[in-house]
Amino acid sequence: MNKTNENYLILPDDRQLCFAEFGDPKGQPIFVFHGNPNSRLLWGVIPGSPFLPNVRLIAPDRPGFGRTDFKEGVTTLENWPNDITVLADSLGIKKFAVFGPSGGGPYALSCAWKIPERLTSVGIFASVGPFIPETDKNIAAPVRIMWANVPKLPGLFKLQMKLFAWLAKKYPKLYIKMVLKEFSETDRKDYERLNIAELIQVDRNEGYRQGGIGTWYDVMIPGNWPIPLKEIKTKVYLWQGEEDISVPLSMGQYIAEKLPNCEAKFIQGVGHFWIFEHLAEMLEKLVERQ
User: Fold this and answer.
1) How many CB atoms lie within 10 A of CB 42?
2) Low-confidence residues of the chain, pLDDT below 70?
């Protein structure tokens, strides 16, 4: 069973990309894109990792998280598929699936938009999408404030994300108390029941390694959404918890409606942390597609 947490690739423009691998090195490849403020390590701490037999998970740090370089204006959502193509080529992988939850969802959708010829299947869970009147429904107040204002005040929010990174490392209990305000009562109960704070501590610290710059870029995406969803022809499997208020149901419904070929599952009574007990069934759907 292969489980390598720290592999490096130097991209053509000399940026560093770091990735982990989990599972069967000869298995069917699925590139998994972590959420915010996670890292490549997330996929090794979720219970059940590596989740399925005969599957190879390739888990890159997204730019600004963990050990993957962030270069403003270069490492954009639109350019991410180029990095993934280089990574896949370096590993000798011609075709692969992609999966992205939460803040990783736009990165999976970007691949579906830009490199459909390389993909066997696409999956997203509770994916961030465009922040517009149709998706501005039942959102946690702190999330709405960020999405609405960060395009106007990017410098201020860059400082805020730097503060969050510092708090997460120095005062984790205070940080968690603040962050849980962005989640529904359902999610807060799951967070405690599954002991997620303890579970992902190493991953969270790695996600904030670069001082929150990746988190800052992520929170700007909804207000500056660049992906033309209607142009994505590849089939996308979408899962969304109906009790989610950090990435609300309205956002999932909008994405599902705009994608030309989407199989959507909206799950009653669950929220953002449903993934911690149900990742295997989502990945299994992507393997079936291959």
Assistant:
1) 26
2) 1-3, 289-290
Q: What is the pLDDT of residue 3?
A: 52
CB atoms within 10 A of CB 31: 25
pLDDT at residue 8, as a whole number = 96
Query: What is each CA distance from 170 to 97, 208, 210, 266, in whole angstroms?
Result: 37, 12, 15, 37
Beta strands 236-241; 262-267: pairing state: parallel
Quote the domain boundaries for residue 220.
Answer: 2-289
Assign residue 189 the CATH number of its domain.
3.40.50.1820
- Predicted local distance difference test score (pLDDT) of residue 289: 58
Please give the distance of CA 22 from its chain centroid, rounded to a whole number: 17
| Domain count for the chain | 1
Task: Note whether 271 and 184 are within 8 A (CB).
Answer: yes
Predicted confidence at residue 249, as pLDDT, reads: 98
